[in-house]
Design brief:
Elements (H helix, E strand, L loop, with lengths): L9 H21 L7 H15 L10 H12 L3 H17 L27 H6 L3 E7 L4 H13 L8 E7 L2 H10 L3 E6 L12 H10 L13 H12 L4 E5 L4 H4 L7 E5 L5 H16 L2 H11 L14 H4 L5 H7 L2 H4 L18 H13 L3 E5 L2 H13 L5 E5 L4 H10 L2 E5 L3 E2 L4 E2 L4 H13 L6 E7 L6 E3 L1 H11 L4 E5 L10 H4 L3 H12 L2 H14 L4 H6 L11 E6 L1 H4 L7 E7 L2 H16 L6 H38 L1 H6 L1 E2 L2 H4 L13 E2 L3 E2 L2 H7 L2 E3 L3 E5 L7 H13 L5 E2 L3 E5 L6 H23 L3 H15 L24 E2 H7 L6 E4 L1 H10 L11 E3 L14 H9 L4 E3 L7 E4 L1 H5 L6 H5 L1
Parallel strand pairs: 1-2, 1-3, 3-4, 4-5, 7-8, 7-11, 11-13, 13-14
Antiparallel strand pairs: 6-15, 8-23, 9-10, 12-19, 14-15, 16-20, 17-18, 20-22, 21-22, 24-27, 25-26
The structure holds pyridoxal-5'-phosphate.
The site of pyridoxal-5'-phosphate has 12 residues, from helix 17.
């Protein structure tokens, strides 16, 4: 049997164990009991033993049924056993148990086809009541457990919108394992009888408990505190769930306690109806989609359309002689739901008071923000809104140079003075990493020394990066606040919306860290630690500040914004994005300017279908985000494992690990890879808790230099043209495979098949190759894997755009508009006049953004001095699109006269 360490998650383990048991019991069923090989029997025993550790946490098939299976096995009733195990496995795979009772007895004549849920139409599925499980935590006898479950069953009413089953576990530890493992659980009832320790003890359970971070202090806790503590612990790992605490303690005792995710306290143990109604209401609150529901209702109303929207109600299509195919392709509903705020009935995105407002509030709860705003034109727009709302002309902003182009344009619009921050380079793979905290602190300290700290407004970073590098968000914010206590943070989480729904990932999201920081800054421990550190740092030089892990002062303001392309990682139509805010000064200082910025960039005709999809996407993640993200991680992990351990694939490909993409000094845990062929999985939790950077394993970067193809050729000519596999990003010698919440095990299997086929074809090709051909292949591989052009840093802004030499901020807006006058610009050819000018030591300054796509961040911005390294990099670039560069003309640069014409006194200095 595979070892537990071969499995990244227990969901897969469980499903594989049941499949294995089905195979084994089917074989047993075919043999006469006296002829059963001992090995087969032992294998069945093993599988029963391992499932016995997992099944107590699930309602279906339930321990009573499981014990019955075991009895059938012990009594050699193999045919009966095989039948029941087959039924269970099938019901688990199709999800049939969610919709109806699954009879396990052979004599039950219900037709097998009824099991086939795949035959259910989408409409039928939409009509069935959603199913979930309720975890009851109480140390009870078997008899009492039956009584509890019976009481729960008796509460069911025909009008209930959902249906649920109960799972009973005895202890706090079991409850934590259950919520981390059983994604069907939506509510927890904590009863006074719970104990602390689990009676089950095995590797996988320990792994789960570690993830919940159970503090050692639990052992010293008095039993009456287990209930409240459990509610607090669950909040850390599954904040979206509802808990109900049944207690015998006095109201006064409970009042004022931090009860985590507890929604209500019950003082009467036997009030099952009240509990039932609360459970349904709690799940109903997450299931609610105010805007989607309003839009569906709207589309049912008969209305005459007398405003500018001919497509509304499909009128311009149904009456057409030429575009009927559009109506046939999309179906009627999409047009029935096409509407706008001005046509009445629904809310307005620009001034929401009704269902859009409510939908945004629900999204705010789901993503842990204080305010959430929807956007219907992507995070590109969200970024510009946040920058415009917060940055005034002349404010200094520290910007990750490799961030998405929308930020750079945002800086131009806002008139910011930009300090570009360099990411560490990954020369070997021709990609950038992320910005080290030292670099950020270094720039802040320089600005402080130059007396400019008061003008520093914002730090802007990408979390996670395109390639999956994730910051230690908490640490970055705390250390920066120690230098600049009112710094505003904008975290571009375009790729990270899903992170909120995995306990491991969540701890590195902007909103979670902002909320933690708010709490921490209020604590007396923080104040004491800060005072102590300040005494030590008094008069200390900058290099001591750089080396010290700084503590933020209690007076620091937590001002955090996150922009998220919901459409990139969760269910939403294209361009559906959100802005999440956790800013203590939002109401006092920003609300008005935020409103103006929102008005500046938001269309007055926002697409309501997009808004509805954001609302539904939020419902999904609140109810099943945990499950979907876990499955996604699992699919990515199995992909990493399959490629890493396949001997044929290892010849030509390499999956880049955390060790490949994050230098040692940023990986305090010392973990280099989440999967090792010898040791299996490393628990990611440790690295995600402490390292400066971690790698999001759902983004799989594959080094393909060993195939002799560069990334772009591999993507277009091999993956796309030959196998129909689409990917988004490549570098000189890598391709990036992104998984998402829709990625299935079969799509991963297909990819692996394709890679194996490519490797086999390469083998064949090399087998038959002439010596010359072999040499040429080796040369190509060497060129891709050994000779790599170094990645240039941001050079600097030209003096014309800098107030002084002390610090590096530049006035990108002046440079940008200077280029509007064609007379200020000239064109230089990369291999000709530009090279000659640089060789002659001339200073050449870019007049445009030069943005290779992908990945879509600039290697030159207006006003930036062009270095020889940048020229070398541009010449080696292997992408088809370079925005801002015209191959027929050359690179657009400023003339010397134009640079000399820029007034030297910067407006903000005059204002100071
Ligand atoms: C880091 C980052 N931010 C923002 C965006 C823009 O997002 P959207 O496509 O939603 O406009 C992208 C797009 O790829 C991105 O990679």
């Amino acid at each position: 049997m595979d070892s537990v360490s071969d499995y990244y998650s227990a969901i897969q383990l469980r499903s594989d164990r049941w499949s294995a048991l089905r195979e084994v019991t089917a074989s047993l069923g075919r043999e006469a009991p006296s002829k059963i090989p001992a090995k087969l029997r032992a294998r069945a025993e093993d599988l029963f033993d391992s499932l016995a550790l997992i099944e107590p946490y699930w309602a279906f098939p339930g321990m009573a049924a499981f014990d019955q299976l075991r009895r059938s096995f012990n009594h050699n009733s193999f045919e009966e056993l095989a039948f029941s195990v087959h039924r269970i496995t099938r019901a688990l795979t199709t999800g049939a148990y969610r919709r109806r009772h699954i009879p396990l007895e052979r004599e039950n004549t219900e037709a097998e086809e009824h099991d086939d849920e795949a035959l259910l139409s989408a409409e039928m599925r939409a009509l069935t009541k959603p199913y979930f499980e309720v975890l009851i935590v109480d140390s009870v006898s078997e008899h009492q457990e039956r009584w509890l479950k019976m009481n729960v069953l008796e509460m069911r009413r025909a009008e209930d919108p959902f249906i649920y089953e109960a799972v009973v576990v005895p202890s706090l530890e079991d409850a934590l394992i259950a919520v981390l493992f059983n994604h069907n659980i939506q509510a927890i009832v904590v009863r006074p009888g719970l104990v602390l320790k689990s009676k089950l003890d095995n590797e996988i359970l320990t792994k789960y408990l570690n993830r919940a971070g159970t503090p050692d202090a639990l052992d010293a806790m008095s039993p009456e505190d287990y209930g409240p503590e459990l509610c607090r612990l669950i909040q850390r790992v599954r904040p979206e769930l509802d808990a109900y605490l049944v207690t015998e303690r006095s109201v006064e005792d409970i009042a004022g306690m931090d009860l985590g995710i507890c929604r209500r306290v019950f003082y009467n143990q036997e009030d099952f109806l009240e509990l039932h109604l609360n459970i349904l209401r709690g799940v109903g609150a997450r299931n609610k989609t105010p805007f989607f529901t309003a839009l569906v209702e709207y589309s049912k109303q008969p209305t005459g359309v007398f405003h500018a929207m001919p497509i509304s109600r499909g009128k311009s299509i149904t009456r057409s002689h030429w575009i009927q195919d559009m109506g046939a392709f999309y179906g009627p509903n999409i047009f029935l739901a096409e509407t706008s705020a001005t046509s009445g009935g629904l809310d307005s995105l620009l001034e929401p008071h009704g269902p859009i407002k409510e939908a945004q509030e629900l999204a705010s709860r789901a993503f842990g923000s204080k305010q959430t705003f929807f956007a219907t034109n992507g995070t590109s727009t969200c970024n510009k809104i946040v920058v415009q709302a917060l940055v005034r002309p002349g404010d200094i902003v520290l910007v990750d140079r490799d961030c998405h182009k929308s930020h750079h344009y945002g800086m131009v619009l806002a008139g910011a003075e930009v300090v570009y921050l360099d990411s560490y380079p990954l020369n070997e793979y021709s990609m950038y990493g992320a910005v080290p905290l030292q670099e950020i602190k270094h720039q802040l300290l320089k600005l402080k020394a130059a007396g400019k700290l008061h003008r520093v407004r914002m730090l802007l970073l990408t979390n996670c990066t395109f390639d999956g590098l994730v910051y230690n968000v908490d640490r970055v914010m705390e250390e920066c606040l120690a230098i600049k206590p009112d710094l505003v943070f904008l975290w571009d989480e375009a790729w990270f919306a899903f992170a909120r729904f995995s306990p491991t990932y969540r701890q590195r999201t902007a909103m979670r860290c902002a909320n933690n920081l708010r709490k921490r800054l209020k604590s007396s421990e923080q104040a004491a630690a800060y005072d102590k550190q300040q005494k030590k740092l008094k008069d200390a030089p900058d290099d001591v500040w750089l080396k010290t892990r700084l503590i933020a002062p209690p007076k620091a303001r937590v001002r955090v914004y996150a922009t998220q392309s919901t459409h990139k990682t969760l269910t939403s139509l294209r361009q559906g994005s959100m802005i999440h805010v956790s800013d203590q000064d939002f109401k006092g200082e920003v609300e008005q300017s935020f409103h103006e910025a929102y008005m500046t960039h938001t269309s007055t005709s926002p697409n309501y279908q997009i808004i509805a999809s954001l609302d539904v996407g939020r419902r999904q993640v609140e109810l099943e985000g945990f499950e979907f993200v876990q499955r996604q991680i699992e699919a990515a992990m199995s992909m990493r494992r399959a490629i890493t351990s396949h001997p044929q694939l290892r010849k030509y490909f390499k999956v880049l690990t955390a060790g490949d993409m994050i230098p040692d000094n940023f990986r305090q845990s010392g973990v280099t890879s989440y999967y090792d062929t010898e040791q299996g999985w490393t628990d990611m939790w440790d690295c995600w808790e402490q390292d400066d950077f971690v790698l999001d394993p759902t983004r799989v970067t594959l080094a393909v230099g060993g195939t002799g193809w560069d990334g772009d050729t591999f993507k277009t000519e091999v993956l796309m043209d030959k196998y129909g596999i689409q990917i988004n990003k490549t570098s000189r010698n890598t391709v990036l495979f992104m998984t998402n919440i829709g990625t299935t095990r079969s799509s991963v299997a297909y990819l692996i098949e394709v890679l194996v086929e490519i490797a086999n074809e390469l083998d064949d090709l090399l087998d038959d190759a002439s010596r010359m051909e072999k040499l040429a292949f080796e040369k190509r591989v060497r060129n891709l894997t050994e000779n790599y052009p170094p990645l240039p840093d941001f050079s600097r802004f030209h003096e014309a755009f800098r107030p002084d030499e002390l610090t590096s901020e530049g006035d990108i807006r002046t440079a940008y508009y200077l280029a509007y006058d064609e007379a200020n610009c000239d064109y230089l050819e990369l291999d000709g006049s530009l090279k000659d000018a640089l060789d002659a030591g001339q200073e050449v300054v870019s007049a445009s953004f030069i943005i290779p796509y992908p990945p879509g961040f600039p290697i030159l911005v207006p006003g930036q001095v062009i270095s020889k390294e940048i020229l070398a990099f541009m010449r080696a670039l292997d992408v088809n699109e370079i925005h801002g560069y015209r191959a027929d003309l050359g690179l657009r640069v400023f003339t010397a006269d134009a640079l000399a014409s820029v007034p030297r006194v910067m407006p903000k200095q005059a204002a100071e």
